[in-house]
Write a structure and sequence with these properties.
Strand content: 25-35%
Protein name: Sulfate/thiosulfate import ATP-binding protein CysA
Structural class: alpha+beta
Radius of gyration: 25 Å
CATH superfamily of the largest domain: P-loop containing nucleotide triphosphate hydrolases
Largest sheet: 7 strands, antiparallel
CATH topology of the largest domain: Rossmann fold
CATH architecture of the largest domain: 3-Layer(aba) Sandwich
GO molecular function, one term: ABC-type sulfate transporter activity
Number of strands: 22
Strand order of the largest sheet: 16-13-12-11-14-21-22
Helix content: 10-25%
Keywords: ATP-binding, Cell membrane, Membrane, Nucleotide-binding, Sulfate transport, Translocase, Transport
């Protein structure tokens, strides 16, 4: 079931939480609402669910206007960050709760409820815990029970508010894989809120980046990471190295640092954004770039070695970061305090007087 959001505005007293939100969430896709705290993503999710009412705008499910429908009539499942399980009920009773409180005319018979609960617990691989209470479960198990409870009502849309935020890193990663696998199997339409960039890029089909109650960009994870539309999206999505300077005669410079730009870059004040994997660490400057650094820190944990660099002879608000392989690290043995240089392979140029960023390649 697709979701169409048209011209949604929301106020809390005099504060405007959402500004003219227009968005289409395709049928059967997993969509992430991504942004920092206060960006409006949870408010938008609650409006989709019917838990909040907008001042203006419409919500449609596959063309059907549900703006004025009560939450119980929208066929929406909602999973909260902190599980919201009933402590005095067993796992099975928690999953069955929504079915048991339906009006008599809509309520399935007890055998049907028991069968549905059993099937759902098997789906979340926790049928052996049916008789336990929430206090006897781990965080990951509680979240899977919350998901089973939401799906017991056979919702047409599943909404999740920071579903993995209360879990430790390993459990969070395992549950992400599990939810993605479940979604691919059942093909329901899902929307989840997160401030975790890695989570959004890894789990979703479509990412909606929000800031200050507005949508900054809507795209696939690959396009969003590779071709951000704005400085905000670039800076919010992962580590980025930034060179601010002036372009004159095809060369961008700031202090002792300079980069020779490809043809077509006009004279202007600009910022060049480079991801850590888009620059190479070298022992000397090249004809295309003179970007001097001293090594500030070395992080050997992970699939690659992360090296933090302090600009030498030019100003930058933050340290740069470059990733190299363990093989390259072992061969070169760089040390903290060493002088080095970087050479860009790909960059993204934001000019003061140009609304669109330009992707540059030096390869």
């Amino acid at each position: 079931m697709s979701i169409e959001i048209q011209g949604i505005n929301k106020f809390f007293d005099k504060f405007q939480a959402l500004h003219d939100i227009n968005l289409t969430i395709p049928d059967g896709q997993l969509t992430a609402l991504l942004g920092p705290s206060g960006s409006g993503k949870t408010t938008l999710l609650r409006i989709i669910a019917g838990l909040e009412t907008p001042e203006s705008g419409r919500i449609r499910f596959s063309g059907r206007d549900v703006t004025d429908l009560h939450v119980r009539d929208r066929r929406v499942g909602f999973v909260f960050q902190h599980y919201a399980l009933f402590r005095h009920m067993t796992v099975a009773e928690n999953v069955a709760f929504g079915l048991n409180v339906l009006p008599r005319k809509e309520r399935p018979g007890k055998p049907e409820i028991r069968k549905r609960v059993k099937d759902l617990l098997e789906m979340v691989q926790l049928e052996h815990l049916a008789g336990r209470y929430p206090a006897q479960l781990s965080g990951g198990q509680k979240q899977r029970i919350a998901l089973a409870r939401a799906m017991a009502m056979r919702p047409e849309i599943l909404l999740l508010d920071e579903p993995f935020g209360a879990l430790d890193a390993k459990v969070r990663k395992d549950l992400r894989r599990w939810l993605r696998s479940l979604h691919d199997e059942l093909h329901f339409t899902s929307v989840f809120v997160t401030h975790d960039q890695e989570e959004a890029l890894e789990l979703s089909d479509q990412v909606v980046v929000m800031s200050n109650g507005r949508i900054e960009q809507v795209d696939t994870p690959l396009e969003l990471y590779g071709r951000p539309d704005s400085r905000f999206v670039f800076e919010f999505l992962g580590q980025v190295n930034v060179l601010s300077g002036k372009i004159r005669d095809g060369v961008m410079s700031q202090g002792d640092a300079w980069i020779r730009l490809p043809e077509g870059c006009e004279n202007d004040d600009a910022q060049l954004y480079l991801r850590p994997h888009e620059v190479r660490l070298t022992q000397s400057a090249s004809d295309q770039a003179h970007l001097p650094f001293s090594i500030e820190a070395i992080n050997l944990i992970g699939a690659e070695v992360r090296i933090e660099l302090k600009p030498d002879g030019w100003e930058c608000d933050e340290l740069w970061e470059v990733g190299i392989s363990h093989t390259e690290f072992n061969a070169r043995q760089p040390q903290r305090g060493d002088r080095c240089f970087t050479v860009p392979d790909v960059g993204h140029l934001f000019c003061e007087h140009s609304p669109e960023p330009k992707t540059l390649e030096w390869r």
